[in-house]
UniProtKB/TrEMBL annotation:
One Pfam family, short name: Molybdopterin
UniProt-listed InterPro entries: Asp_de-COase-like_dom_sf, MoPterin_dinucl-bd_dom, Mopterin_OxRdtase, Mopterin_OxRdtase_4Fe-4S_dom, Prok_Mopterin_Oxidored
Name of the featured protein: Molybdopterin-dependent oxidoreductase
PANTHER family named among the record's database cross-references: OXIDOREDUCTASE YYAE-RELATED, TRIMETHYLAMINE-N-OXIDE REDUCTASE
Record keyword Iron present: yes
SMART domains per record: Molybdop_Fe4S4
Source species: Actinomadura rugatobispora
Keywords: Iron, Iron-sulfur, Metal-binding
Family: Belongs to the prokaryotic molybdopterin-containing oxidoreductase family.
Length: 724
């Protein structure tokens, strides 16, 4: 047995690990105390990497659907070339836009895949690029595109006086919604340390989360009321003068319009409709506002609601009017190490309404954000007739069958494809519908570096790891699939600004050097330094504004209209009805990690309800419930949870009734309850994943119509799945 240092690649934290390698297999995984960022910290997911990589459900070979419809094993490189040939024909016959690509979550934790994937799709000439970004915190892309972006960078948590989090359970997810470093690596310790030095933490969440337990002030509003709540906070900050008037004078347009727009959000109204004590609302505004440092950042909860684009716009507006950005002469963030540095300047980049020009989809006339189309339109891109209909889809490290809204619709779409290729180490719900499943090498089986994660680190840092165990024979690395198909398709790819040599295949290590070639640290200098290296700062400071007079647009006309609509919309919950809210599980990463013995608490996702709500429904812990929305119905296993707001039910996403072939569990796909057509935001078509009106009844009881509306209840496919 040897102990080898490496780092974990299941989430952005990239914790340093000590891995037992026994006969070429992974044994126990420990935290590496010498790692300068994680200092020995790991989470249960990271510690079970051995079971994940070597467990019973891991694909040890790629698969091809044969003539009789069954999967047969196929060599990964051979399959890639076959697929390249099929893609070449589809492209020649139907044009480049008949090919689409979906980028899933796990792609982001490999250094090479995102670079190669994006340049691959660009080289095909297709515009049909989709990712989880538009079914996640999608407004985080939209807000700067409409408001403009301050280029000096945000104030960090390191020296903050106050931090406010909404809909973001960082202690469980290691995901500071805006990528604030200290909230990513070992967030509980970082928050405790910050509070010891005097930082105040405000948490807004309908659930008293693990993060809320660390807060100085906790607000537990009614789900889906974030836009109103943020407007209410802004109103107090503006009326009490708790904002940075000098910064606004210099950098902001629309302060008076903002004042008028949030005027209807009076403290009394906000307190009543959000159902929070009015004193707490004032307390939050006064604790946050004024001459302090620190930011208001949001997670998925605040980005999933019925007015998520407005909620996020107003959250960022809180930061802007309070001037919570780095000013000229302050030390710049300087965390780019393997990536090229973008100089920080105290200037504003103008809004970029990229969706208003260039390629638009025939589905709803949608345009692109940061080069991507909204994921919610992907099913219609496949299903709706039209000259550039998507016929072939490559899914890179994602599981749309459980991630997309409207489970039935995404299934229909995936089944309608001429060619579905899924690159995934597991036979997921999505992979089971594929023509080819490419089995990739997993984390400890491949070399990597931290190029794409450095943005999330609290200090400038870089790490490299070689592969520490060999992948199963015949398994390829993700990037190789794209390389091999590119060769067959004759694509000309550029990676990190340089042409990729398609005659002489580079090694993975050469590729790692290529993608980091614009950084300030050489990959070669990281090899043999398994703890990674803290990189000295550049000493750069935020540069002057110069002659530029661009200002941030607080309330462009479309945003103003959306604010009005959001503030007109009263969130009504009929008596006896519930609100379905989102939440995540500690032991799994979306759908990754299911099926590992002993990792997830159960082999299903429970429906969490308050004990008294369960009692009222006559359901025992562990008993069955039927949850019904206006769009569909699922059965789930009930679990008591005192941390919830009364009248809410939380059902984690990423599960279904059949997680892996033959492994029938009692999991429920929450996206049977969501819609891909209704309740979508403008522009980014972000679905509503929280604050969904539902009814909950004990399994075996006939369900009434869904709370809120009976749209679609006439659809027989959506009839309640009642066992009676
Ligand atoms: N263990 C683990 N870690 C993960 C993941 C995982 O599945 N498991 N997933 C990863 C991914 S892809 C992401 S995007 C991040 C997400 O990271 P987070 O955004 O921290 O995700 P959650 O833990 O679901 O936290 C969302 C919170 O929003 C609250 N909420 C629900 N509805 C509302 C609402 O209407 N308003 C407000 N204000 N809050 C609401 C929920 O109660 C919940 O506490 O986590 C990443 N890390
Ligand atoms: N109702 C509802 N819907 C949601 C959410 C919600 O909270 N509620 N959350 C949304 C959010 S924030 C997100 S990010 C999406 C998640 O959407 P997805 O990213 O589509 O879902 P994941 O389950 O993260 O899929 C990751 C896949 O990558 C595979 N994988 C693991 N390692 C590797 C690897 O090395 N290479 C490759 N090729 N594959 C690998 C895993 O087996 C898994 O199947 O779901 C969204 N959908
Ligand atoms: S926090 Fe993320 S990187 Fe760290 S051990 Fe857990 S999954 Fe791995
Ligand atoms: Mo996500």
């Amino acid at each position: 047995m040897t102990l080898v240092k490496s780092y974990c690649r299941f989430c952005a934290a990239s914790c340093g690990t000590l891995v037992e390698v026994v006969d070429g297999r992974i044994g126990a995984v420990f935290g590496n105390k010498d790692h300068p960022l994680s200092k020995g910290f790991t989470c249960p997911k990271g510690r079970r990497a051995g079971a994940l990589l070597q467990g019973p459900h891991r694909l040890t070979s790629s698969l091809r659907r044969s003539g009789n419809g069954e999967f047969e094993p196929v060599d990964g490189l051979a399959a890639s070339r076959e697929i390249g040939e099929r893609l070449r024909r589809i492209r020649a016959e139907h044009g480049p836009d008949s090919i689409a690509l979906f980028m899933g979550t796990q792609q982001a934790f490999t250094a090479l895949t995102p670079f190669v994937v994006k340049s691959w799709l660009r080289a095909t000439g297709s515009h049909k690029l989709f990712s989880t970004m538009t079914i996640d915190q999608s407004a985080k892309w939209l807000v700067p595109l409409r408001m403009g972006e301050y280029l000096g960078g945000p104030q960090p948590m390191t020296d903050a006086d106050v931090w406010m989090l909404s809909g973001n359970n960082v202690v469980l997810t290691a995901s500071g919604g805006d990528g604030d470093g200290p909230l990513v690596t070992d967030p509980a310790t970082q928050i405790k340390r910050a509070r010891r030095r005097g930082m105040r933490l405000i948490v807004i969440d309908p659930r008293r989360t693990e993060t809320a337990e660390l807060a100085d002030l906790f607000l537990q509003p009614r789900p889906g009321t974030d836009a109103l709540l943020h407007a209410g906070l802004l109103r107090i900050l503006l009326t009490e003068g708790l904002y940075d008037a000098a910064f606004c004078d210099e950098y902001v347009d629309g302060l008076e319009e903002l004042r008028r727009a949030v005027d209807p959000a009076t403290p009394e109204r906000v307190a009543r409709e959000c159902d929070v004590p009015v004193e707490d609302l004032f307390l939050a505004a006064r604790m946050f506002g004024g001459d302090k440092r620190g930011r208001f950042t949001t997670g998925t909860g605040a980005n999933f609601g019925p007015h998520s684009n407005v909620a996020e716009h107003l959250a960022d507006t809180v930061n802007i009017i309070c001037g919570r950005v780095l000013r000229e002469g302050e030390p710049a963030w300087g965390g780019s190490v393997l990536m090229p540095e973008r100089p920080a300047v105290a200037a504003v980049a103008p809004p970029r309404r990229t969706w208003e020009s260039g390629f638009t989809s025939r589905v709803g006339g949608c345009g692109r954000l940061n080069g991507e189309l909204p994921s919610a339109i992907l099913p219609d891109e496949i299903l709706m007739p039209g000259p550039d209909r998507v016929r072939a889809l490559v899914v890179s490290a994602g599981n749309p069958m459980v991630a997309f809204p409207d489970e039935a619709k995404i299934r229909r779409a995936l089944e309608h494809l001429e060619l579905l290729v899924v690159i995934d180490p597991f036979l997921t719900e999505t992979a089971r519908l594929a023509d080819y499943v490419i089995a990739p090498a997993m984390s400890y089986e491949r070399a990597d570096h931290t190029v794409l994660m450095e943005f999330f680190f609290p200090r400038p840092f870089a790490g490299h790891t070689p592969a520490i165990v060999a992948p199963p024979a015949g398994v390829i690395e993700d990037w190789e699939f794209f390389y091999e198909t590119a060769v067959v398709m004759g694509l000309e790819m550029k990676v990190a600004g340089r042409p990729l040599d398609l005659r002489h295949k580079p090694t993975s290590e050469q590729m790692l050097e290529l993608v980091a070639s614009r950084g300030r640290v050489d990959v070669a200098s990281l090899r043999g330094r398994p703890d990674g290296v803290l990189v000295p700062g550049t000493g750069a400071v935020v540069g002057p504004r110069g002659d530029d007079t661009t200002r941030l647009q607080l309330v462009p006309p479309d945003v103003l209209a959306e604010i009005r609509a959001a503030l007109d919309d009263v969130v009504e919950i009929p008596a006896g009805g519930f609100q379905l809210i989102s939440r995540r599980l500690k032991e799994v990463m979306n759908s990754l990690g299911r099926g590992i013995p002993g990792l997830a608490l159960h082999d299903y996702n429970p429906a969490f309800l308050r004990p008294e709500d369960l009692a009222r429904l006559g359901v025992r812990p562990g008993g069955g419930v039927v949850i019904t929305s206006a769009f569909g119905s699922v059965r789930a296993v009930a679990q008591p949870d005192e941390t919830l707001r009364p009248g809410t039910v939380a059902l984690p996403h990423g599960w279904s009734g059949e997680v892996f072939p033959g492994a029938r569990g009692e999991g429920a796909n929450v996206n049977a309850l969501t819609s891909g057509d209704e309740d979508l935001q403008t522009i980014n078509r972000m679905p509503r994943y929280t604050a969904i009106p539902v009814t909950v009844v004990a399994l075996g009881t006939r369900a009434g119509p869904a709370a809120g509306s009976a749209r679609r209840s006439a659809d027989p496919r959506r009839a309640v799945d009642d066992p009676e």
